[in-house]
Amino acid sequence: MAKMIIDGHEIQAKAGATVLEEARRLKIEIPTLCYHKDLSSFGACRLCTVEIKVKGKWRLAASCQTEAEEGLEVRTDTDAVRASRKLAAELLYFRYPETAAVREIAAKLGVDVREAAEESHDCILCGLCTRTCHEIVGANALNFKDRGLGREIEEPKIEFSPAACIGCGSCAYVCPTGFVRMESVNGKRIIWDKVFKMASCEVCGRHFAPVEQLEFISRTTGVPIRSLMTCVSCR
Amino acid sequence: MNKVAFSSWNGKIIDNRSPAKGKKKAREEATGAFPATLDGYSYDALMGWNGLVVFDPKADVPALTLAYIAEARKLSCGECSVCMIGIDRVREILLDMRAGKGGAKDLAEIEEIVKGVMVNSKCNFGRATALTPVLDAVKHFKAAFLEAGKGEKDAPGEYRSAVTAPCMEACPATLDIPGYIELIRNNKFKESLDLIRERCILPGVIGRACTHPCEAACVRKDMDGPLAIRLLKRAAADAELREGSALPAPGEEKKEKVAIIGAGPAGLAAAYNLRLMGYGVTIFEALPKAGGMASVGIPDYRLPKDVLNHEIDLIKRMGVDIRLNSKVEALSVADFQKQGYAAVFAAIGAHVGTRIGCKGEEVVSEDVLQGAEFLRGVSLGKKVVPVDKVAIIGGGNVALDCARNCIRLGFKDVEIVYRRSRAEMPGSDQEIEEALHEGVKITYLAAPVEIVRKAGKVTAIECVKMKLGEPDESGRKRPIPVKGSEFTLKTDMVIAATGQKPDLGLLSAKEKGSLATAWGTIKADAASSSTETTRLFAGGDCVTGPATLIEALNAGNKAAKSIAAYLRGEPFVDEPSFEGIDVHQQRDMGFVPPAPVGKVELLDVAERIGSFAEVEGGFDADAAMKEAQRCLRCYRLMVWQ
Question: Which residue of B has its CA nearest to A82?
Fold first, then answer.
């Protein structure tokens, strides 16, 4: 436990908790696009900025990446914080003007959001899908393709490794913009342009999971594949 | 072209553009830091991570700004929104202004964006390099930006650029450290290793045995500890050991062949790079094993030999011919030429121990050994009969390696005698700590005066206590004997590990005149490795004296480039240098959330003694990716025009 102050409230923070988590526990609203409570924090969207006191000086910090510690003082609603969040939102809106999730959060943060001609579903590089695939699923099919020295990459993007993907769909579930799409047609699942054969439940016959996913579960848990051929409802 | 018209370097504004403001003193202060030409290219102005420096008041600062942004854009990784998009937004506004659509309002917007990026970016690239000098430019060259739209000049015109980082500058081989760490962070271990191999062909070796000066230069060092850069390199190499890979195929076969003397890090690196360019390469190695000091200097518990042998095998598979047990007795470029070698690279290392300088040392006996000779013997499988007590003279890694070998070989009492104190000890802290854990004793501030023998057997060394005086030319405090403080240290064996020099026996007396230095090393140009003998190049420990593996390896990298340039009949061009520019300087880092350094397991002390098993564990993939997240990506960019 660590005693700390957020917006004047003295609280007992949980060991290892972040400032973002503690602020949200206090029902303080902090905007985020790249945060998920079950994933490691990534600090990509720069919207959760707060001010913390470091050696007597107020400094901006990403609350999702700052751990609560004894004596920490935090302010979440100052001019500097608001301006910083607004600028980050403005930049996101500049780049992704037709993406609903961005438009919504930008409008909330005071950006002048104009009507969009149409809706698009851009990848905003929040890293929720890469972290889900690595940390929760363990398949490692999604990785950042970043720019860097000598790499000559025009636009950074998420790189998809078809051989590693098991078609579980977790990335589509967690994607905030609808960029990752998952479609089901005729007993097949299509995700990241890879087509997966679906297994049918031995009891009810319903297509319930990609065969490759069941194989992956069997491989990583040691449970024989035959025991996995029944859907959740029939088990 | 050496007077500064304007400078904002490191946040200090010097403005000499209007004579009324100009102060002579300031003018002088700002001139020294930057050379008149950079990379052989004279320039009017430069922009870097730490500011804008204008020499010619007529320099086109808006064009330079666009050039800078174009280069910064290539480096901005894209993982946080403000840096990547901020750069693009500023670029768009500037291009609009250049096209005549813009005004003072736009400059104000640029200022706002740049400030926002500087305080809110995730890493140090966004906080310093991405846009810092752009802010200075729009603040102090407003009129130029507002007028830029009236001209018809195309932006940005011809310019030069260079990139480094504090860790890269500290690395003797200038590895792209933030680059390979970033690839690990993104789970691209194979790509990371490919990048490492561009400048370090022994990644598993260097990832274990490097002295890692990069870590001392890491910006995180004074916050929560430097990145574990060496161990991350090892993680990339270990992933390859598990999964296997091949080196790139050699380029188009060239007709020339090159002879390399010595299969140590310098020789192997030169061989790899020359082979990659398509040259035929033969390495002549005196010992029965390849690897040089990596093979016969660094013990197995620090560097398992299967790691080294695997990396040597990959080089052999490219078509490099390594001939073991092939000592070159007399170095004759003409003879090599007759055998079809167009150039010779001498990389013979420094394997001969130097004398301690005490009485009784001149008597040859089996119980007085040289450190390098002892380590070589152990590595080559020579039987060592442990005695009760051994005294090792010296304070470097060779002394520590000898001591830790003795512990493993069953010597009962192992004592290092060093003439200065722990603070001056050149051995790495990690090795000193590990040696102490294993039971090695270290006596500081003492030096041997005489080796005492009875019936031809060593029984003791007479020592004298030392005190520290003023620093000597090496910068370390000079040890001074304390009169009357003599004492006797009983011992059965003495190992002298006080330094090494190359064996220049392959040079004739006449050649020594032009090729040897007063210190017994080979005289060669530090950058091009060329010697006074045409077609003969030299590098590594035989030129520098005993140095680190990575320094020798880089000497091999450079020699390969230089030899290739010579064979093509072109001049050798060294890489642009940031020398004289403090790459650590940065105006404001902002707040960096603390994250502790990733730790690896060390082998239990009980298991170390009596075994040569590797002491230090490595990161697994997850731990490596987590540690890589800590990198602040302190790329320093400079653009000049």
Answer: B116
CB of B513 within 8 Å of any CB in chain A?
no
Binned at pLDDT 50, 70 and 90, residue B505 comes out as very high
- The answer to whether B396 touches B521, Cβ cutoff 8 Å, is no
Domain boundary among B568, B585, B606: B568
Contact between B81 and A94 using a beta-carbon 8 Å cutoff? no
Q: Residues B39, B140: one domain?
A: yes
Kindly state whether residue B185 falls inside one of the protein's structural domains: no
Distance CA A231, CA B359 (A): 86
Radius of gyration (C-alpha) of chain B in whole angstroms = 28
**Per residue in A202-216, pLDDT tens?**
999 999 999 999 999
Q: Does pLDDT of B29 surpass 70?
A: no
| Cis, bond preceding B156 (omega within 30 deg of 0) | yes
A17 at interface of B, judged by CB pairs closer than 8 A: no
Average pLDDT for chain A:
95
Are A127 and A160 in contact by the 8 Å Cβ rule? The answer is no
pLDDT score recorded for residue B155: 60
Q: Is residue B607 part of a domain?
A: no
- CB distance from A43 to chain B under 8 Å? yes
B-chain residue closest to A155, CA distance: B78
B 413-432: CB under 8 A from A: none
Can you give the pLDDT at residue B22? 47
Structure tokens at B10: 């490191």
B534 shares a domain with B441: no
Asked if A197 is an interface residue toward chain B (Cβ–Cβ < 8 A), one would say: no
pLDDT at B1: 45
B527 within domain boundaries:
yes
Domain with CATH 3.10.20.740 in chain A: 2-108
Cα–Cα nearest to B113, from B137, B131, B136, B95 = B131
Helices and strands in chain A: count of H runs, count of E runs: 6, 11
Tokens of residue B488, six digits? 């006797």
pLDDT of B32 reads 53
User: What percent of chain B clears pLDDT 70, i.e. is strictly above it?
Assistant: 96
Position of tokens 């990446």? A65
Verify that B338 and B478 share a domain, yes or no: no
| Pair B25, B107 in one domain | yes
Whether residues B75 and A95 touch (CB distance < 8 A) is answered with no
**Of the residues B463, B483, B499, the one at which a domain ends:** B499
Residue B84: which of A52, A127, A156 has the nearest Cβ?
Answer: A156
Tokens in use for B388? 């009760």
Cα separation, B363 vs A161, in Å, equals 67
In a domain, B194, yes or no: no
pLDDT reading at B154 higher than 70: no
Which amino acid is present at A163? A
- CATH classification of the domain holding B41: 1.20.1440.230
Residue B317 and residue B344 in one domain: yes
Share of chain A above pLDDT 70, in %: 100
Dmax over Cα atoms in chain A, in whole Å? 66
Which tens digits make up the pLDDT trace of B171-219? 999 999 999 999 999 999 999 999 999 999 999 999 999 999 999 999 9
Distances (CA, A) of B324 to B80, B280, B502, B536: 52, 17, 19, 21
Count up the domains in chain B and report the number: 3
Report the CATH number of the A2-108 domain: 3.10.20.740
Domain assignment of residue B81, given as a range: 6-158
State the pLDDT at residue B598.
96
The proportion of chain B whose per-residue pLDDT surpasses 90, expressed as a percent, equals: 85
| pLDDT, tens digit, 9 for 90 and up, residues B65-83 | 999 999 999 999 999 999 9
